[in-house]
Amino acid sequence: MKLIFLFGGKKGSLESEALGADYLERISHSINAEAMLVPSKAKGEDVKNEESENTLAQIKESDAVILFDERGKQVTSPEYSEILTRLIESGKKRVVIIVGGAYGVSDTVRERADIIIALSKMVFPHEIARIMTLEQTYRALSIRAGMKYHHV
After folding, report:
1. Cβ partners under 8 Å of residue 41, min gap 6
2. Are 84 and 130 in contact (CB under 8 A)?
3. Torsion-angle region of residue 91: left (phi > 0), alpha (psi -120 to 50) or beta?
4. How far is Cα 102 from Cα 114, in angstroms, rounded to an integer?
5. How confident is the model at residue 5 (pLDDT cuts 50, 70, 90)?
6. pLDDT over 70, % of the chain
7. pLDDT of 152
8. Are 65 and 96 in contact (CB under 8 A)?
């Protein structure tokens, strides 16, 4: 089982990249995980379409796909842990977790997603959304393992 994080947009600041790398390393202690940046050379609204096409090109037909998107369902950290646990235990070889870039993702990415989750009713810069997604995934895996990271 492998978790693949696909992040749209450009590389973030040194600070956000370091924090994201820290959470990815923590996640990797529990499960094989990798993060990939899915950039675009296009401009304006075309960025969303190109990033979305590049994202879809990274997804296999057999993958389970979670999309973090403002139009998704809001869940608690324990609920996200249950979702992730169900997918990990489903026998899938890969779970792909997507966070779009500054312009979001296309409808084709939304249609491909098995689960769409909103981090909040608010919209965050994609750089912060990446870190929040990594942190919440680490938290979900910690809950699954019975670790004391998550306080109720």
Report:
1. 50
2. no
3. left
4. 22
5. very high
6. 98
7. 62
8. yes
Q: What average pLDDT score do residues 88-111 get?
A: 95
The 3-class secondary structure across the chain, one letter per residue, is CEEEEEEECCCCCHHHHHHHHHHHHHHHCCCEEEEEEECCCCCCHHHHHHHHHHHHHCCCCCCEEEEEEEEEEECCHHHHHHHHHHHHCCCCCEEEEEECECCECCHHHHHHCCEEEECCCCCCCHHHHHHHHHHHHHHHHHHHHCCCCCCC
Q: Are 136 and 24 in contact (CB under 8 A)?
A: no
Q: Are 30 and 61 in contact (CB under 8 A)?
A: no
Q: What would the two tokens of residue 79 be?
A: 């609920």
Tokens of 116: 């769409």
The CA distance from 81 to 138, in Å, is: 9
